Backbone:
């Protein structure tokens, strides 16, 4: 477990943890719940899969609906992770984060500074397969399925 | 594209890959396929953060050992928040809520007790009577959860990675 260069967050193997804690705008919790009630669907789901670097992510609202935590596990380095957000899923990110107090927008020149300011670094971080990226896992699962099918066919 | 709807969601090729997010059937947290999440905010006793930090290196050094015994956790992280007065933790794991806590109590209680006894307010040990009900007051369900391979358990993933390694080794040998 090591610090992720000069950026916040811990790294274990090839995985990073990324967590933001922010105040919500007044009424933001209710609006976020309404927005998120269906999960990621349609193009948002496909676009998040297209990132190909996010193992999991979640939003947790707490403190009587006044604050929110965004937590994710991703592959690679901090700066490309944020850049991918801005280039591949900018609309989804703006939609999901616009209730965070002070959120400047994913295309703002200040976005990385704002994120770094909200980000907290874990004191403990564990992954069961720290050296496998999302794409490694997808590929491994495909190979395993193909081999299983091959064995079934030849049995 | 078709125009049928389920709830407010259009059903078409764009929504065909959508992850179905459910709440845990037997406890707190969200779930997609076999993947579950749980978060919590734990209050610390005065001075608890200092003790927590002192114990962390040992806790972390033993993480792989205990998690291997539990066998269902994909990833977890812990943070000190609010000027070191609370711990926030998040876990992504396989399966049902109650089974997860039973596994923790049966297979990894010593690990958590060594970290949290005397650190977290009111913590009396993972095997103390009524632990899950008491601990439940500190747990929070996410509002939103995404997982990139939700139908695979921790052991599915580990096995697939081993198979992939062996397969690639085999290909290297025959080339």
Residues:
């Amino acid at each position: 477990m090591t610090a992720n260069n000069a950026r916040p967050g811990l790294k274990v193997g090839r995985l990073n943890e990324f967590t933001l804690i922010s105040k919500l705008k007044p009424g933001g919790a209710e609006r976020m719940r309404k927005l998120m009630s269906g999960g990621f669907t349609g193009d948002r789901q496909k676009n998040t899969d297209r990132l190909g670097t996010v193992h999991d992510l979640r939003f947790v609202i707490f403190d009587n609906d006044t604050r929110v935590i965004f937590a994710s596990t991703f592959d690679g380095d901090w700066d490309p992770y944020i850049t991918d957000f801005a280039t591949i899923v900018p609309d989804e990110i703006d939609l999901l984060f616009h209730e965070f107090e002070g959120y400047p927008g994913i295309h703002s020149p200040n976005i990385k500074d704002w994120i770094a300011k909200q980000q907290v670094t874990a004191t403990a971080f564990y992954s069961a397969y720290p050296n496998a990226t999302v794409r490694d896992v997808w590929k491994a699962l495909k190979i395993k399925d193909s081999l299983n099918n091959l064995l079934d066919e030849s049995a | 594209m078709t125009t049928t709807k389920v709830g407010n969601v259009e059903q078409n090729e764009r929504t065909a890959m959508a992850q179905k997010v459910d709440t845990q059937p037997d406890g707190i947290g969200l779930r997609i396929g076999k993947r579950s999440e749980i978060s919590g905010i734990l209050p610390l006793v005065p001075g608890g953060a200092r003790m927590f930090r002192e114990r962390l290196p040992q806790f972390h050094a033993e993480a792989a050992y205990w998690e291997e015994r539990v066998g269902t956790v994909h990833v977890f992280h812990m943070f000190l928040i609010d000027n070191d007065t609370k711990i926030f933790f998040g876990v992504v794991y396989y399966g049902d809520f109650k089974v997860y806590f039973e596994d923790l109590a049966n297979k990894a209680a010593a690990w958590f007790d060594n970290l949290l006894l005397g650190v977290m307010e009111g913590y009396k040990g993972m095997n103390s009577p009524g632990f899950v009900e008491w601990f439940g007051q500190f747990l929070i369900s996410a509002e939103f959860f995404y997982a990139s391979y939700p139908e695979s358990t921790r052991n599915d993933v580990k096995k697939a990675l081993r198979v992939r390694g062996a397969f690639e080794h085999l290909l290297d040998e025959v080339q």
Observations:
- The CA atoms of residues 35 and 170 of chain B lie 32 Å apart.
